[in-house]
Amino acid sequence: MDVWTEAGAPVFAPMDGKIHSFQNNAGFGNYGPTIILEHTLEERKIFTLYGHLFQKDLANLQTGKEFKAGDLLCHVGPFPENGDWPPHLHFQVMWDLGEHWGIIPEWQRRKSWIFIEKIVRIQI
């Protein structure tokens, strides 16, 4: 899901979770700075991806760092550091990442995305 907004808009953790992975997926049309959180929902792991962020939001992250629902996670990044897009947040929910790190696997990109309404809490 893409949420179009201004660069610098804050993005909050939708539910308790921890950093699974993060990286700058640089290159024209890619996700740019990206964070993936790992959550537990009804005893099952799920992952939320946040793309097109500020590069500086990746600076102090560590795998396993915990976030509570409502904690400030990151900010929407500006063009061109966000993957060369107008400012927006790419938000995605996934059941499985395989062994991938900092980006979703190609096979997940081609599947229909899972949207879990009760965990989406975006403040613009």
Topology summary:
Blueprint: E1 2-4, E2 10-12, E3 17-25, E4 32-41, E5 44-51, E6 66-67, E7 72-75, E8 88-94, H1 106-110
Antiparallel strand pairs: 1-8, 2-7, 3-4, 3-6, 4-5, 5-8
List keywords for this structure.
8 strands, mainly beta, globular, 124 residues, six-stranded antiparallel β-sheet, 4% helix
Give a written overview of the molecule:
The chain is about 5% helix and about 35% strand. It has about 120 residues and is mostly beta strands. The strands form two sheets. A six-stranded antiparallel beta sheet has the order 1-8-5-4-3-6, with no helix packed on it. It has a two-stranded antiparallel sheet with strand order 2-7. Strand 3 and strand 4 form a beta hairpin. The radius of gyration is 13 Å and the shape is globular. The relative contact order is 0.31.
Distance between the termini: 14 Å
Number of helices: 1
The major sheet is characterized as:
6 strands, antiparallel
Radius of gyration: 13 Å
What order do the helices and strands follow? EEEEEEEEH
Condensed summary:
The chain is mainly beta. It contains one helix and eight strands, in the order E-E-E-E-E-E-E-E-H.
